[in-house]
Design goal:
single chain, mainly alpha
């Protein structure tokens, strides 16, 4: 078992408290001192974003190759386009509804083990990515560089996709497939909670 210095132990114990303290302001970037950091934490500390982005990785893993890699690439690329739309002030109706629906629909696709063709899956993921990106772009703090912020939220999104992919590898066993489908159901419920204003 590795040994840690007292300073390391203190830092490890403080990390959860710092994350909890940052959560209240991270969705808008308040209290975060760089564009990259604000962009990075924005998707990670917003549950409406988390469930959809993990779902993309899960669904890609469930569909198998090449979806396992294509979907998590399509999402941040298209999300960056939506982010640019938000930064320049281009209107997009029902952004919050689109974000909530992304959790509901992607969760249900996983829960019901829907095996869509790769182009259909990419279109579904791309449409939802526009909404997520637009939300990131419109919430860009004025004091921060849009470039650093954009790189931050793409990196944060990629991390969430990788978490979904990692859990998606459970589909190699029947028990794992059931667990992943159950996770899809949970994601759909979280999305529904946001959709109906319960979260």
């Amino acid at each position: 078992m590795p040994s840690f210095s007292p300073q390391s132990r203190a830092a490890l114990l403080a990390l959860p408290l710092m994350l909890l303290a940052a959560q209240a302001g991270a969705h808008t970037g308040e209290g975060i001192n760089t564009g990259f950091a604000s962009g990075f934490w924005h998707p990670i500390l917003g549950w409406d974003h988390v469930v959809a982005m993990v779902a993309v990785g899960l669904w890609g893993a469930f569909l198998g190759s090449p979806s396992i890699w294509i979907l998590p690439v399509v999402f941040p690329l298209v999300m960056a386009v939506g982010g640019a739309m938000g930064v320049v002030g281009m209107p997009l109706p029902a952004v919050e509804t689109g974000i909530a629906l992304s959790g509901v629909i992607l969760g249900l696709l996983i829960a019901f083990a829907v095996r869509a063709p790769i182009w259909v899956a990419a279109v579904i993921v791309g449409v939802f990515a526009i909404f997520h990106g637009h939300a990131h772009g419109t919430e860009l703090p004025e004091a921060f560089s849009p470039y650093g912020y954009a790189v931050g939220f793409v990196v944060g999104t990629g991390l969430l996709h990788m978490i979904g992919i990692a859990f998606g590898f459970l589909t190699k066993s029947e028990i794992g497939k059931a667990a992943v489908r159950g996770a899809g159901g949970v994601i759909a419920l979280v999305g529904a909670a946001f959709l109906f204003g319960l979260a």
